[in-house]
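Data availability (excerpt). The following record was deposited with the supplementary files.
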Amino acid sequence: MTDFTTDMPHTRARSAPPKREYYAYFGLIFLATLPLCILTWVLSAARRMELPEKGPFAKAWTQARIITPQIFSA
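Predicted structure:
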């Protein structure tokens, strides 16, 4: 008699990434980094007397894109 339970392929069910949770964390981190990015943007603009290349929203968006995946990979 053959035992088929030992020769079964090991397939794992792929679970979808928690998108709602990811977007919730992304939004919170974006809102948390926004005031500091605005402050640094204003100080940089005042010091150089010209507008920086990236605006404060773009910087906050970039920071949220960097920080949020680090939370989920931990």
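Summary of structural features: DSSP finds two helices and no strands in the chain.
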